[in-house]
Specification:
Blueprint lengths: L16 H4 L6 E3 L10 H13 L9 H15 L8 E4 L2 H11 L6 E6 L4 H8 L3 E6 L1 E3 L2 E3 L2 H7 L4 E7 L11 H13 L3 E5 L21 H4 L2 E5 L13 E4 L3 H8 L2 H4 L5 H11 L4 H25 L5 E2 L7 E5 L8 H7 L2 E5 L8 E5 L4 H16 L2
Parallel strand pairs: 1-13, 3-4, 3-7, 7-8, 8-9
Antiparallel strand pairs: 2-10, 5-6, 9-10, 11-12, 12-14, 13-14
The chain binds pyridoxal-5'-phosphate.
Length: 382
């Protein structure tokens, strides 16, 4: 491998949320960013721009928008139009805008459980009602059930949120599953929203991401997707996201008051994303090597967890976020227990699954192995 993902680089005192929260002897495997340097090609481009020295207001050029159109075509094989794109500084802001502006005051939403906490926070903070639909294990994958959705839907249900690939749990939803879900949404006139930030982190060979815009004509009229390269190229600290929707009314509602709550993306965010999208750039080698590295780390986590009798996890199809069932430990606070053993994991409570833990393996192998040793030892003490 030409890019050394094995290299250990200290992130202490770099204003890293992940590394600065806990004492130095704790291995922090919680928040979802990776301990890998961005592709050199992107860093060089950012440095060149910085050297210009004037960092004024910026905008998304037509060339950049076209690069997104080409990227979506290249990566997922679907054609969108430049006009369908709206830029945002983050995916989270898109979730919040949706809850605020696509739901009326008495409308209701359907939100997956477990899910990334902003799914609930967005609807809760907007003061709207929601019901949780559950991801349950079926043939080793965390999936939703249309029967449960049919039982939960109300006459005032207007929005359904899905994370594809799913965080936590890593499910890469198959085209047939998404078609079923979109048929459900069309039948009940519900807007379907997908958070696709983990789209390019598919670890299983042979699986492919299906964006909503690649499904069919009808659902593209009644849905929107939130996309970003923040996760995959590891620059969430200068983040950029975009919403894709063919539906003019969704675009209008989401953006009518956008400046009241959401700032413009920053100069470096546009530039980093544009550089990452350049076809055949050295970033594509970095990307291929990243996926291989993460796949090995994923395999290591799965093998080690299998040997610990009180822990289990389903096979992870995507993401660098292992979703571990710690219920057999019968602890009131599993996160606290492992923190005392020197590993900071994301608590399942954050995703509404208190007996689970999320482990970020986007780190050099030696760090991961050390953390897994500590986890194993801590389990042996119970
Ligand atoms: C599913 C999901 N959506 C959104 C985000 C955050 O994205 P952003 O930084 O663009 O708001 C994360 C970060 O972990 C995530 O896992």
């Amino acid at each position: 491998m030409s890019n050394s993902f094995d290299q250990i680089i200290s992130r202490k005192n770099t204003q890293s949320i992940r590394w600065d929260k806990y004492p130095a002897d704790v291995i922090p495997l919680w928040v979802a960013d990776m301990d890998f340097i961005c592709p050199q090609f992107i860093l060089d481009g950012l440095q060149k721009r910085l050297q210009h020295g004037i960092l004024g207001y910026t905008y998304a050029s037509e060339t950049f928008k076209q690069k997104i159109v080409d990227y979506i075509d290249r990566q997922y094989g679907c054609l969108i139009e430049k006009e369908w794109i709206t830029f945002l500084p983050s995916v989270v802001s898109g979730l919040h805008l949706a809850a605020q502006h696509l739901l009326g005051s008495s409308d209701h939403a359907l939100v997956p459980s477990p899910a990334y906490h902003h799914f609930y926070d967005s609807v809760n903070q907007a003061g709207k009602q929601f019901s949780e639909f559950h991801m349950t294990l079926k043939d080793g994958r965390w999936v939703f059930s249309i029967d449960e959705l049919e039982a939960l839907v109300k006459p005032n249900t207007r929005l359904l949120m899905l994370c594809n690939p799913h965080n936590p749990g890593g499910t890469v939803f198959r085209k047939e599953e998404l078609i079923e879900l979109s048929d459900f949404c069309l039948k009940h006139q519900i807007i379907l929203c997908t958070d696709e930030i983990h789209a390019d982190l598919i670890l299983d060979e042979g699986l492919r991401h299906t964006p909503l815009v690649g499904l069919n004509h009808l659902i593209t009229e009644n849905s929107f997707s939130l996309m970003s390269l923040n996760k995959v190229f590891n620059f969430p600290g200068i983040g950029l996201a975009w919403m894709v929707t063919k539906n003019v009314e969704i675009r209008r509602k989401m953006t009518a008051q956008i400046h009241a709550s959401v700032p413009e993306p920053n100069l470096f965010a546009y530039l980093a994303t544009e550089l990452a999208m350049t076809p055949d750039s050295p970033s594509s080698d970095w990307y291929k090597e990243l996926i291989i590295y993460l796949r090995h780390n994923r395999d290591l986590v799965e093998e080690r967890i299998k040997t610990i009798p009180q822990l289990s996890m389903a096979h992870l199809e995507s993401t660098y976020l292992a979703w571990i069932d710690a219920s057999q430990l019968q602890l009131t606070d599993p996160q606290e227990y492992f923190l005392k053993a020197g590993v900071a994991l994301s608590p399942g409570t954050q995703f509404r699954a208190p007996q689970f833990l999320r482990l970020n393996f986007g780190v050099p192998k030696t760090i991961l192995s050390q953390a897994l040793d500590r986890i194993e030892k801590a389990c042996q003490l119970i």
